[in-house]
Write a structure and sequence with these properties.
Largest sheet: 2 strands, antiparallel
Strand content: under 5%
Strand order of the largest sheet: 1-2
Helix content: over 70%
CATH superfamily: Sodium/glucose cotransporter
Oligomer: single chain
Number of domains: 1
Radius of gyration: 23 Å
CATH class: Mainly Alpha
Number of helices: 22
CATH architecture: Up-down Bundle
Number of strands: 2
Amino acid sequence: MSVQIWTYIFVALSFSLYIGIAIWSRAGSTKEFYVAGGGVPPLANGMATAADWMSAASFISMAGLISFLGRDGTFYLMGWTGGYVLLALLLAPYLRKFGKFTVPDFIGDRYYSQTARLIAVFCAISVSFVYVCGQMQGAGIVFSRFLEVDFTTGVLIGMAIVFFYAVLGGMKGITYTQVAQYCVLIFAFMVPAIFISIMMTGQPIPQIGFGSELTEAYGGGYLLDRLDGLSEQLGFATYTEGQRSTQDVFFITAALMFGTAGLPHVIIRFFTVPNVRDARKSAGYALVFIAILYTTAPAVAAFARTNLINTVSNAEYEMVPEWFSKWENTGLITFDDKNNDGIIQYVGDPATNELNVNRDIMVLANPEIAELPNWVVALVVAGALAAALSTAAGLLLVISTSVAHDMMKRTFMPNISEKQELAYARISIFVAVLISGYYGINAPAYVAQVVAFAFGLAAASFFPAIVLGIFQKRMNKEGAIAGMIVGFTFTAAYIIYFKIINPAADTADNWLFGISPEGIGSLGTVANLLVALAVAKFTPQPPAEVQEIVENIRLPGETIPR
């Protein structure tokens, strides 16, 4: 059977499963809609957290970026993985003990201020919108190629599907859907990685194949040495040597770490388990499940890059494989025959290079480039969609809870009924899907880069407020509010200027202290922290009862009674 038929089969089966789970686990109360009733087992929550965490950026774009950036691309691995460890050990158990549904709920109560709550709502919605745009962009890329529709139609299909099960099931439906999606995405990522590793190195474990010698069919020698040689021969940067400045790599890694620890859609997952002990367990399970994909991604990147160079470099355009023509139809691969010789000149010099490859297609195209069976290619499609839509659903729920619970119920309309609150939550999801779909179609960068901007905003707004709220009794509402405003505004303005207002200036020569827009969130975090501490020093201390809560939140025990 063709790739397209296999794709229809796998996508139809997997999506039927997701929608069936959403119907089975339909939320009937606000607690089920927001935190799945607080009764999800740790193992299931760990799988759901991993699916929520491993978005289209992790599945589709991360390995693609590493395949082109080489060593420089690994800051995504270090930042995201390190950030999750930071969240699991430093913040999650204490937030779970505090006993609130959302990050704005925590900030509003900890800083005894409706203003702080509303600022947190604005930041949560902004971060989630930027993040979910990347997921819609990823869904569009997948559908445009494998269902052979245009990119816009692909995004619209993804919007419709995620809207259905997010609105119907809420967090309860999303949680159990994400358990299924994790199984699909990790199977889909590992199967082709194992096949290609065996083909290229004879090793069935991709992580070992990454450091092994190639088979004679691939020219022998160690994989990375071979890739370095190919890169230098064609005029590209050496794969194993970094091209970015040390300070930019440091700041990007830090921004991704701090942003991870402040992501609202990941933090909320720790409220879906029965108690603090189970929150710690689910964090440990999630880390193991995440590590399976993250330790495999560098190998997939190296395999894909090697196969791409071997396949297209100096190849006759009239003789290119079918996969090349299919991707060319999407506009994500373009060939410009500058010297009219019919030969693809794929080189590092932009003046003579004739091939442009969108980095987001590398994981999706990898099985086709390696000539794996059609069913494996289709399986990767199902996995990519599972990654994109699972995270999109979690982000949409953050937006809905921020609007319905934190803004309407807790601030402007405290007397609305539970039924009305659920209605507001579902309406806000609908609006959020429309807006995120538009920006998914008109995204300013690759999926992983768009997602990195969301992490920077989360780092600059939430991370200091949460850390100081847990560990600093003296931190008051004035300091927290000032810090969030300064950190978020600075980071957002920097990103908007270089990515939207003046993208031509987005070069290292024009960056502040040599820090790229992907890494500026770490500087925003520092600004937030310094402003918050300075303002708190010269303003009144928090009330005694709030300081007592901060003392009790770090003591052994369950949710603080208030």
